[in-house]
Predict the 3D structure of the following.
Amino acid sequence: MSPRTGRPTDNPKHNKISIRISDEDKNILERYCEKEKVNKTEAISRGIKKLEQK
């Protein structure tokens, strides 16, 4: 394994997006991440999946 190779995964994330959010939304996201002990990527992924459940 070369030094540039990352950790193997069953769910590679090839897509990158960049967004601008309000201070209020940022604070909500950070509080959720702290409470649930997840990173921002996981928190946003959970929110996106909830959109499909509706």
